[in-house]
């Protein structure tokens, strides 16, 4: 009898162990999938919207002689947009910074020194971001709420700092590659055929042919019924989710 009970106990123990292993494995697998697919913090690449709107953005780090031309062309087509400014650019071009704000454009934060953010400590990341926020505020009276990582490089550390600072990370869904010296037609071909509602387009304020390409892009997309908006008119800063493709979905 004792031997029988022991055998039963052993069988039950083995059964419980197998169940426990299965449960733990299932939980681990679910957790791993969650981290891989939904756990990583992702910046906004585009927005899910039924409105026929597109956000044109201009990164400014080197040079400024074409900045006013961009503002003039955008005004001619009834368009507005967003400039992402680097701190050392602001320091060198204070009047241009004021002109961007005066023209009604959003100013986003592109870091102080255009460094690779994931390689920095959290404190260094905060310093990079806060410097630009403070400089923009001192010149325009408004503090940036959107941040674009230099080189498009980001990680959870950066995204966590942005959350703490109440800022939203923004990338792009269409890259003009204008910085590579592409012709106006080549830039046009990279943007217009695939443009859709909620897209965020990346330009650079001092690229070789931005002033030639911009009228072509604006004219054609406007003819297709698109409206050009600032990020503050497109990208939510609260009550939203971002899917694994970087598309922002606003909560009802």
Task: Describe this protein with a few key phrases.
15% strand; 2 domains; TIM Barrel; 252 residues; alpha/beta; three-stranded mixed sheet; globular
- Briefly note the structural class of the backbone: alpha/beta
H/I helix tally? 8
Stretches where pLDDT is under 50 for at least 5 consecutive residues are 1-5, 17-37
CATH topology of the largest domain: TIM Barrel
Secondary-structure arrangement, i.e. CATH architecture of the largest domain: Alpha-Beta Barrel
Q: In percent terms, what proportion of residues is strand?
A: 15-25%
Number of strands: 11
Please write the CATH class name of the largest domain.
Answer: Alpha Beta
Let me know the largest β-sheet: 6 strands, parallel
CATH superfamily (homologous) name of the largest domain: Glycoside hydrolase/deacetylase
**Element order, helices and strands?**
HEEHEHHEHEHEEHEHEEE
Distance between the termini: 66 Å
Rounded to the nearest angstrom, the radius of gyration is 24 Å
Query: Which percent bin holds the helix content?
Result: 40-55%
Shape descriptor reads: globular
State the domain count: 2
Mean pLDDT: 89
């Amino acid at each position: 009898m004792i031997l029988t009970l022991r055998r039963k106990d052993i069988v039950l123990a083995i059964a419980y162990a197998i169940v426990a292993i299965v449960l733990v494995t299932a939980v681990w697998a679910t957790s791993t999938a969650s981290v891989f697919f939904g756990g990583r913090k992702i910046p906004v690449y585009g927005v899910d919207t039924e409105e026929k709107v597109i956000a044109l953005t201009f990164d400014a780090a080197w040079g400024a002689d074409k900045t006013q031309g961009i503002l003039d062309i955008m005004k001619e087509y009834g368009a507005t947009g967003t400039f992402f400014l680097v701190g050392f650019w602001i320091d060198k071009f204070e009047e241009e910074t004021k002109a961007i704000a005066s023209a009604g454009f959003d100013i986003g934060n592109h870091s102080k020194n255009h460094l690779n953010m994931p390689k920095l400590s959290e404190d260094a990341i905060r310093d990079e971001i806060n410097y630009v926020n403070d400089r923009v505020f001192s010149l325009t009276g408004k503090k940036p709420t959107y941040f674009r990582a230099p080189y498009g490089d980001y990680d959870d550390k950066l995204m966590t700092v942005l959350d703490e600072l109440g800022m939203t990370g923004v990338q792009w869904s269409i890259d003009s590659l204008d910085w590579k010296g592409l012709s106006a037609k080549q830039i046009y071909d990279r943007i217009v055929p695939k443009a859709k509602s909620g897209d965020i387009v990346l330009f650079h304020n001092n690229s070789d042919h931005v002033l030639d390409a911009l009228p072509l892009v604006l004219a054609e997309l406007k003819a297709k019924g698109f409206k050009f908006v600032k990020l503050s008119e497109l990208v939510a800063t609260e009550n939203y989710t971002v899917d694994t493709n970087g598309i922002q979905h606003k909560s009802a």
